[in-house]
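A common beginner's mistake is to predict each chain separately and then try to dock the pieces by hand. The better habit, illustrated here, is to supply every component at once so that their relative placement is modeled jointly.
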Amino acid sequence: MEASPEYAVQMHGILKTFGAFTALDHVDLDVKKQTVHAILGENGAGKTTLMNILYGLYQADEGDIFMGGEKVNITSPTDAIKHGIGMVHQHFMLVENFTVTENIILGDEVCGAAGVLDMGRARKEVMELVDEYGFDVDPDAKIEDITVGMQQRVEILKALYRGAEVLILDEPTAVLTPQEIDKLIEIMHDLIAKGKTIIIITHKLREIMQSADECSIIRRGVYMGTVNVKESNETELASKMVGRNVNLTVEKTPAHPGETVLSIRDLTVKDDRGIEQVRGLNLDIRAGEIVGIAGIDGNGQQELVDAITNIVKAESGSIKINGQEIVNTTPRTTFLNKIATIPSDRHRWGLVLPFAVSENSVLERHTEDTFGEGIKLDYNKMHDYTTKLIEEFDIRPSGCEDERMSGLSGGNQQKAIIARMVTSSPNLLIAFQPTRGLDVGAIEFVHKTLIAERDRGAAILLISFELDEVMDVSDTIAVIYHGQIAGTFAQGTVDENQLGLLMAGGEAK
Amino acid sequence: MRNFEKFLRSRFAAALIAVLVGFAISAIVLAAAGYNPIGSFGALFNGAFGKPKYIANVFIKATPILLTGVSVAFAFKTGLFNIGAEGQYILGSTLATIVGVKLALPMPLQVPLVLAAGILGGAALGAFVGWLKAKFGIHEVITSIMCNWISFYLCNFIVMSDAFHKPNSTSALQVNGSSYTMILGNWKKSEAGKEFLSNIHWLREILLKTDLNYGFIIAIVVAIAASLVLNRTKLGYELRAVGFNRDAARFSGISVERNIILSMLIAGGISGLAGALTITGISPHTITLLAAMESYGFNGMSVAFIAGCAPIGCIPSAILFSSLIYGGMSVQQVMGAPSDIISIMIGTIVFFTALPGVTGMIADAIAKKRKAKEALKEAVKEA
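With all components supplied together, the output reads:
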């Protein structure tokens, strides 16, 4: 495609290699002015790399960038900002104890004579911006006191303040409630109407359908084409992204719950700053049942899992597994009581990345005689055991027993954790954000495994910040708010608006 | 070419390049100071390997730093920085002296007891540092440095105490003769031994003119054992898991606290053994009043890092290090060049081993060139 003034951004023939690895193989991207353009791809497909090149964080080995038909040379974020490109990263770059205004002007301060900071004028300029775009943001509030949705708006304001015409949003909905997502989509359409262009990186199909005009798909560093979103559907996008047909709906039979396996009563847990995060929580899970916990990050989910797995001490309350009290014991006791946990942060809690795949696969079980008698650890037996897991769970690349865990992709690392957890035939399986950062193919696998474990008779505790996931997979949906269960529903008896209200601390209608 | 790439990515290549760069920079420093680099390196080599006696001394001097090196490497592999090897060494030698002076048992009992005392001293000090870290989260570097000074002054206190001080000297009493670990210690001084040795010049030189002892053999065994424990046992697995990722280890039911203490205990014990072996193997077979740290522990850190913190790698690394130190003395004698040059060389080598990425980057560049060439060849073929 020729460079043309119709397009806000055009990237042609972008090649980027890291050592021997080709991250982007001559990728093209043409973004029309005043549109929302989605970039869709699996994890590691190269979408963020492409955007980092546009924002000047990386330099392409080959290829050209055009803006409004003119060739531009972007070698640093400063260049990008000069050309009117703004980027909102997935993890916000805000100073927590600064006010909104201070954060917005940071690095681009308004100064009067002799370089003295002119906060009065800065505040006025910020107010004008807020009014112009109708953002509901208090310029004098401190970042730590406002919601995540508002923080995101501050990030967008930061870019607009620097004169951004093209906004790059990297996974913008990952941390938002359904209501906040709706608000964000509204803001995006508003910005388009005011002449801006938006590029959004995401792997959430539904949001693309709701917000984007066009969608470019990248698969393993190769450009797969651009589709008009209105003429497409979620299934088509998904199969284009993965390269095969995927089943987007979760298939499962009705649950046949048995005896109560996990019983939590009046549990109170403080976080490491000494603030109560779980406040008298009660929860029961029966065998053969998936209980999904819906809620916004930071409402006690982490502390709940930490207490069950005995990573932290609970202040008070009781956690019983098959009648056995395990509160305030040790992680080892948790494991011996046949509780397995897929942790939310697999790199921090789930894996020893510099260890080989085979070494990782026996964490928890390395003390067993199966892997060497006495003090000896038998690497051959570990290797054989791992080979079985790799085959059974299709961990790739096959034959990776002796490779370092850090060399595997995120999805395969997650498979390795799940393989480890499931082979211990747990009575209770805790899945905390089990599909975080995974692509649709891997998500399908995780959900199938959870349901298979349920059908085997395990009790499943699913905790996720993705409301869709909780609604699709769970037999029972519980909402956590402010460290307590705010409501419990059987699957199919509640819609996402009701859940969203409860998640935000409102009353269900 | 591919083999060369593979070699470049190995730990050995990183160490080798660091050593070569160290020599190159020392050559520049020597030349700038007006000394002939080639002649100086010749003197260095000659001073370390020129006579059987010298070689024996290189091994004798390599013994303590090999052990402290293994001690640092072991702790490092489990995520801990044992800067306290120095203090553990001093406490090990002090306790070994106390036991060696007070006990006078037959050699098969005496030697193990003296060595055990040294190991116990180092291990206790190491475990104390580990306990402070596990229980209160105090960083091991801070507590280790403090423990170094505690050991230092405790050693001086023992030297000067009534029970152990040797009158009219700056030393403590010598340990009992049955504690000695010199090779053929008694035989070589006997009439028969002297007569036998008078015919074999080189053997006489290394046996009579040096304190050649069993220490180096013990140190090699310890290095191999440390490597086996780390890589082939459940204990080593847990220690490394805690070292690489404390959170994941805790999450999978491994006791982080216990393993931190154990790791420091083992590392401390190895350094303590180094101290004890100095007492049993080398005259004056006792501790002396220290004016400054003797740097056995600190040199052990250099040994460990040149070896990439692999216990077995510490063996060549310690020999290299001790030949530099020992041979360096002749650079001063023969060339008149200050022995500080050797310190600069050692410093440069350690500095460049701290940049293990360099050789990897060279390998990457070669791989890229090769790929480009292959692509070109294919393009030509297709055309």
